Amino acid sequence: MKIAVNTRFLLDDYLEGYGYFLYEAIRKIVADHPQHEFVFIFDRPYNQRFIFADNVKAVVTGPPARHPVLWKLWYDIKIPAALRKHKADVFVSCDGFCSLSTKVPQCLVLHDLSFLHYPAFIKRSHLLFFKRYTPKFLEKAKSVATVSLFSRNDILARYPVSRDKINVVYSAAKEIFQPVSREVKEQVKEKYTGGKEYFLYTGAIHPRKNLMNLLKAFSVFKKKQKSSLKLVLAGRLAWKYNSFIDALKSYKYRDDVLLTGYLPEEELVKLTASAYVMVYPSLWEGFGVPVLEAMRCGVPVITSSGSSMQEIAKDAALYADPANYHSIADQMLLLYKDEELRADLIEKGKLAEKEYTWTKTADLLWQSILKAVG
């Protein structure tokens, strides 16, 4: 079988969200199925490290698909031409988009419908594209994969899609996320926070990640505890970050907040594993990988109620109402005061994260690909 894969999110300068899922799941599928041929379709020059094995052929067909007009060009003209040229039996697209003009069966991965729930956090041109074409993508694809029951139920509630068409293909955390030694922890804290313990958020600086409420919660924590704990925010500046950066300039505890920017993976692992607590207050997630990354590193987690994170972490995390910064602050204060609870969450987290592996993800995605082929 010849399997074509949309690899436009395998970007050498950073891998996030779609890119991580694509990299880990497809890399495992390629290794597990050497008898099949894979055609990776890039929209720009690629790094050779993304060509995982001898059964992978790389194709570059531009221009880079970076906005709605080019999305239409790439998916409905460039992709069908590449599929015909390379005689693909199936097309796998892990970024929520697929081709509306090809006759090749398609397996679509749709991570979540955050654009419907928080439309103000998305560029208007992108929002209009998502609203117009997502139902068409769901209808066109022969099979659909999504990363949690939470997301599957959301899709079913919003669109007339058959339940049998949608497979839950859970994501996972990379195996590189592991606990580190006390010595490494001390080195990391000395490097980033002058030796102080810190709350950690990892992910893009983006309105949907709810970082303004995290700042407010941190203020409440500092006022009530007079603690030396810092707040570290590790991630690239994404979209609409200016208001957050401006707010930081006049923030009372600005000296206790550190923005690291995008970090290499090895550095992010050390920063995560050395944290006192991971606080991930995102308003909406299809899965919430940073929650599992922290658990793999032996770090307790505070995250959002009412989203997929409760399905993923179950009783291994504390939950706060993301719309209420006092709720977030209460959980930060609780973990700070109760070391027994903190230790209990660490142990539960170690058990919870073992349920999610890239081997399982790859197996589930492979079944969805086979369903598309029929």
User: How many beta strands in the DSSP annotation?
Assistant: 13
CATH class of the largest domain, anyone? Alpha Beta
In terms of per-residue confidence, which ranges show pLDDT below 50 for 5 or more consecutive residues? none
Helix content: 40-55%
Mean pLDDT: 95
Keywords for this entry:
374 residues, alpha/beta, Rossmann fold, 2 domains, seven-stranded parallel β-sheet, six-stranded parallel β-sheet, 14 helices
Can you walk through the features of this model?
The protein starts with a strand and ends with a helix. It contains 14 helices and 13 strands. Helices cover 44% and strands 15% of the residues. The strands form 2 sheets. A 7-stranded parallel β-sheet has the order 3-2-1-4-5-6-7, sandwiched between helices. Strands 10-9-8-11-12-13 form a 6-stranded parallel β-sheet, with helices on both faces. The chain folds into 2 domains: 2-172 and 357-373, Glycogen Phosphorylase B (Rossmann fold, 3-Layer(aba) Sandwich); 182-353, 3-Layer(aba) Sandwich (Rossmann fold). It has helices at residues 18-32, 68-85, 114-117, 124-140, 149-158, 182-193, 211-225, 242-249, 265-273, 289-296, 308-313, 325-337, 339-353, 358-373, and strands at residues 2-6, 37-42, 56-60, 90-93, 106-109, 143-146, 166-168, 198-202, 230-234, 257-259, 277-280, 301-304, 318-320.
